[in-house]
TrEMBL record:
<dbReference type="InterPro" id="IPR027417">
    <property type="entry name" value="P-loop_NTPase"/>
</dbReference>
<dbReference type="InterPro" id="IPR011990">
    <property type="entry name" value="TPR-like_helical_dom_sf"/>
</dbReference>
<keyword id="KW-0067">ATP-binding</keyword>
<keyword id="KW-0547">Nucleotide-binding</keyword>
<dbReference type="GO" id="GO:0005524">
    <property type="term" value="F:ATP binding"/>
</dbReference>
<protein>
    <submittedName>
        <fullName>ATP-binding protein</fullName>
    </submittedName>
</protein>
Length: 689
């Protein structure tokens, strides 16, 4: 899990990449409504037609009040969601909560946010309005420090909701200023001789910011007079079908669709085709993905990079805020492209190509997971999460039988990258069809059981363990049989049946380690064995097994299992009294978990590090580390994984620190650590300052 801060503050607001024009009155109103010391209503909605600037205004307003929310201003982008029931998951992901639990998502958020003061910005709610209503109804009554800012084409309709209906920009002032600023990128200069024509252009575009921006960039190829004349033309006949669909909608929405359609008409035919096909992407895409998904027929892959650059020049496609090598479509522009894709009769075919692209990507990620490519695949999984989710949803609705294979691969990546609920959702659906025996089913069963283990859902994990062991034996793959032992032994260990767990885990044959997901499971069997020895107090046996895992991890180039092994070796060092080695190995474990954004692993490493630091005699630093660790455990939903042994060990260390520095000094240092942002806390722990 990576931390997001802005200027040292918690939160994930993106930096503004373009200047902000106008909206002084609206910003003043929002300043007051979002100020915890002034506004009394805690649900504020910005409502308006597509393209009117709701998101830009919300982000600017949220940025202005950041200092009033010490626990962060958090943007939740809802436009990538394709199905109902996912808004809560989107909030958990935006807050970077590595939720390990199985309870309702709203309860997880409420527990984490208890006593905090934060602002949630729910952006683009109109297509998931009922879910947003349910979220607000569940959270606002129990979290007095929470405010929610909504952008939507319609309001939520809840009591106490404060609604700002966002009108287009005033033409004579803000609309002209916006046009001039965007057109300046083409070399245009506003002056007294052309101001009247610019006002006429903005008036014909109803002052809608997106329509104005799309028109302004056209001055690179049209004169202002030509631009004004083209906007006066009737909507081209080829757009009549799309215009008719908007005929019952608000006039300004029709104006925007007309403006987008006019921009669409000015695109070359292959640019229009690419625009339509790009609409299947969720959350962003890179050039290679566009080439694989969008090529075909008259559109060769070799032309896509150049055509994409042209669409960027025309503001149809935007470069991603955080990564200039990735691209995105604004919601309204994407909707227009999706309409055209349907009109062309290509929607199903292109969505299948999108699914198959991400199916191949997930398959390759699993095939290379237990190698030196592991960290890169973790980053790729995080970056492509929205597309993987959309592709997985598509696979689950198709009758061609690929859903199980894809769920096994995508679920495995999600399990190891912190998306446990997504993994559980897709695996449950894929396995509910009672698929026949085969490697895909065995891998899906293993991952579903491994998800249950991390969630602490031990009864469910036991059931999946039995089913996976039966499938592995039926399949006849000895590595799959070893992998299944991880589920059985891990469930026994977490249930406190340590001797039985050791019998199961130690009986597995030592086979060559594979580079794929089952190879990762082979290493996790040995990690589970070392961990169980440690819980029994047999530190030297735990060390021997953990050091074997470390050597195998280095040989493979992987980090996931190796970082857990580093932590176990650190605990064995403590038992020996080798404090210096314990601190060093705990920091190594923390660094390894950080590479993979493994919040549970990082929390465990922080507890071990705190124990080493207090043993070294630095009680104040140990107290801060315990505070940092507590805040990281809070992100997982299950402190110390609900393990009685881990909880008791942490309490012993806390008592020791209190005895060394006193209760008052402990509470002060602990509080300092508890309030550190995630990244700052890990940096403090890792670097000793």
């Amino acid at each position: 899990m990576s931390d997001k801060t802005t200027g040292g503050r918690p939160g994930n607001l993106p930096p503004e990449t373009r200047s902000f024009v106008g909206r002084r009155d609206e910003l003043g109103w929002l300043d007051e409504e979002l100020d915890p010391g002034v506004g009394i209503d805690r649900l504020v909605s910005l409502v308006g037609v597509g393209g009117v600037g709701k998101t830009r205004l919300a982000l600017r307003a949220a940025g202005r009040v950041r200092d009033a929310y010490p626990d962060g201003v958090w943007l939740v982008e809802l436009s990538p969601l394709h199905t109902a029931g996912l808004v809560g998951l989107a909030v958990v992901e935006a807050l970077r909560l590595a939720d390990q639990s199985t309870g309702p998502v709203t309860e997880v958020v409420a527990e984490w946010a208890k006593g905090k003061r934060l602002l949630l910005v729910l952006d683009s709610c109109e297509h998931v309005l009922a879910d947003c209503v349910a979220l607000a109804e569940a959270l606002l009554p129990v979290l007095p420090g929470l405010r929610i800012l909504v952008t939507s084409r319609e309001q939520l309709g809840l009591p106490g909701e404060r609604v700002l209906r966002l009108d287009p920009l005033p033409v004579a002032d803000d609309a002209v200023a916006l046009f001039a600023e965007r057109a300046a990128e083409t070399g245009f200069t506003l002056d007294d001789t052309n101001r009247g024509t610019v006002e006429a252009v903005c008036r014909r575009l109803d002052g809608i910011p997106l329509a104005i921006e799309l028109a302004a960039v056209r001055l690179s190829e049209l004169s202002l007079a030509q631009l004004h004349g083209r906007l006066g033309e009737r909507l081209p006949s080829r757009l009549d079908l799309l215009a008719a669909r908007e005929g019952e909608g608000p006039p300004r929405h029709q104006t925007l669709r007309t403006a987008i359609g006019w921009s669409h008409e000015l695109c070359a035919p292959l640019e229009r085709l690419l625009w339509a096909r790009l609409s299947v992407f969720a959350g962003g895409f890179c050039v290679r993905a566009a080439e694989e998904v969008c090529a075909g027929g008259p559109l060769p892959a070799g032309r896509i990079a150049g055509l994409l650059a042209r669409l960027v020049e025309q503001s149809i496609v935007r470069r991603h805020r955080a990564d200039p090598d990735r691209f995105r479509l604004l919601d309204t522009v994407r909707e227009f492209g999706a309409d055209w894709l349907r009109a062309l009769g290509e929607e199903h075919a292109v969505r299948l190509r999108h699914r198959d692209h991400y199916r191949r990507l997930a398959r390759q990620g699993c095939a290379e997971w237990n190698t030196g490519r592991q960290v890169a695949w973790c980053e790729r999984t995080l970056t492509e999460h929205a597309n993987l989710r959309a592709a997985m949803d598509c696979a689950l609705t198709e009758p061609d039988g690929v859903a199980l294979e894809m769920a096994a691969d995508v679920g495995f990546l999600w399990r190891h990258c912190g998306y446990l609920r997504d993994a559980q959702h897709c695996l449950d659906q894929a396995l509910a069809t009672d698929p026949g025996p085969g490697p895909d089913r065995t891998r899906a069963l293993w991952t579903r059981g491994a998800v249950a283990l991390l969630q602490g859902d031990l009864e469910v994990a036991a059931d999946w363990a039995v089913r996976c062991a039966d499938a592995a034996r039926e399949q006849g793959d000895p590595v799959a049989v070893v992998a299944a032992a991880y589920l059985t032994g891990g469930q026994l260990a977490l249930s406190g049946k340590l001797s039985e767990a050791i019998d199961v885990l130690s009986a597995t044959p030592r086979l060559p380690i594979r580079p794929d997901g089952l190879g990762a499971a082979q290493l996790q069997v040995r990690v589970a064995l070392a961990f169980t020895h440690m819980l029994r107090g047999d530190h030297e046996r735990a060390r021997v097994v953990a050091e074997e895992v470390r050597e195998a991890s280095v040989a493979c180039g992987e980090s996931w299992a190796g970082a857990f092994a580093d932590g176990i070796v650190a605990q064995a060092d403590l038992a020996r009294g080798d404090i210096h080695a314990a601190v060093g190995n705990a920091r190594t474990a923390l660094a390894g978990h950080g590479l993979l954004h493994n919040t549970v692993g990082a929390a465990m490493a922080l507890d071990i590090l705190a124990a080493g630091v207090v043993a070294a005699g630095d009680g104040h630093r140990a107290a801060r580390l315990l505070g940092i660790g507590e805040s990281v455990w809070a992100l997982t939903g299950r402190a110390q994984m609900d393990s009685p042994d881990l909880i008791a060990t942490r309490r012993r260390h806390e008592v020791r620190v209190r005895e060394e520095i006193g209760d008052r000094a402990y509470e002060k240092a602990y509080g300092e650590g508890r309030t550190m942002p995630y990244g700052e806390g890990l940096d403090y722990a890792a670097h000793g300052h």
